[in-house]
Design goal:
Elements lengths: L4 H23 L7 H26 L1 H31 L7 H29 L3 H22 L9 H9 L12 E4 L2 E4 L1 H25 L5 H13 L1 H8 L9 H22 L19 H36 L1
Helix pairs in contact: 1-4, 1-8, 2-3, 2-8, 2-9, 3-7, 3-8, 3-10, 3-11, 4-7, 4-8, 5-10, 6-7, 10-11
């Protein structure tokens, strides 16, 4: 896929413009967005992502467009899983509803910058070391198993600060309360950081950890750095609106973890097959390529869409059944 420099520049400019609209039009004036507002903006961001896919189709063909759509849908579904942790972070830090938009937007911006660095490193590895697909594939299979095991355990998650945040708290004085929308304040001649900065770093660092799963996953669907970058950017940019849109619905997606485990395991297998097909390791088949079938992009896209559809429908059905069974109990009490 030959992507001219000017196309990269235009794409980055569009992403920066979308961020500017969010900063100037939404986060600058703290407010709690309504469901209607979140729905319209979420639809707008999805529309931009779909239009981008059509541009890829027109400029580089349906094959690359299919890779982009498969990557975007996967990243979007993984982002929904990330929102569970975002909800825990917001509750742990008791972030006022009016400030949650700003926290999410700043955290996502930090994550976008860090993910870009991850993508460039991943692209360099893929380009120079074909054996890295073995590592990516094995890691995704392990992640899928961990996701499935956690889903079956049914344990409630609690958010625990990572080492980076603990270091911030030890080295910087933090105010006890939020000071409007400020991240740093001066009191009694000393500078303090506010919980707003700490929670923003929590969101950004948590999303960076999610990138450890999502970056290998999308490289299993496309090795085009441009498509990997675009799919990640567009899935992250709509995450703030998606948070407020489905905040009250997250606990109803009871089978989401199972669906994500199935997708990650599928991509893990796809990566291992690709690694075998391009094998250069001397201790595997004498360093020769292994003739194994490779999974097509069209099949990958169909599989991801079907798994997510089944997962969502089963989750909503199970939640409805649970509510129906609980209704008589409430009446009897």
């Amino acid at each position: 896929m030959d992507v001219p420099v000017w196309v990269w520049l235009v794409t980055v400019a569009v992403i920066l413009a979308m961020l500017a609209v969010d900063f100037v039009g939404h986060a600058r004036v703290p407010h709690a967005p309504s469901m209607r507002e979140s729905a319209w903006w979420s639809a707008g961001y999805v529309a931009v992502a779909l239009v981008f896919g059509l541009v890829v189709w027109a400029g580089w063909g349906g094959g690359f467009a299919g890779e982009y759509f498969a990557g975007y849908i996967t990243e979007k579904s993984l982002s929904v899983d990330n929102l569970f942790v975002f909800v825990l972070i917001m509750a742990t830090f008791r972030v006022p509803r009016l400030l949650q938009q700003k926290v999410l937007l700043l955290g996502i911006t930090v994550a976008l910058v860090l993910r870009t660095i991850f993508i460039l490193l991943g692209a360099a590895l893929v380009e120079n070391f074909s054996w890295v697909f073995y590592l990516f594939g094995a890691f995704l299979l392990w992640t899928a198993w961990s996701q499935l095991r956690h889903a079956r355990s049914g344990d409630d998650e609690e958010y625990h600060e990572n080492g980076f945040l603990r270091l911030v708290r030890r080295t910087l004085p933090v105010t006890e309360d939020y000071v409007e929308g400020h991240m740093v304040v001066r009191r009694a001649g000393r500078w303090f950081v506010t919980p707003l900065l700490v929670v923003m770093l929590a969101i950004g660092s948590a999303d960076l950890l999610f990138a450890v799963d999502s970056i290998p996953a999308i490289f299993g669907l496309t090795q085009e750095t441009y498509l990997v970058f675009a799919a990640n950017a567009f899935s992250l940019l709509g995450l703030r609106q998606l948070y407020f849109l489905i905040d009250g619905l997250l606990d109803r997606l009871v089978f989401l973890a199972y669906g994500l485990a199935a997708i990650l395991a599928f991509i893990g297998v796809k990566l291992v097959l690709h690694a075998l097909h391009t094998n250069e390791l001397p201790f595997v088949n004498g360093g020769e390529h292994v003739e194994v079938p490779e999974i097509s992009t069209a099949f990958s896209l169909g599989y991801i869409v079907v798994v997510l559809a089944i997962t969502t429908l089963l989750s909503l059905w199970a939640d409805r059944r649970r509510r129906e069974l609980a209704a008589p109990t409430r009446k009897d009490s």
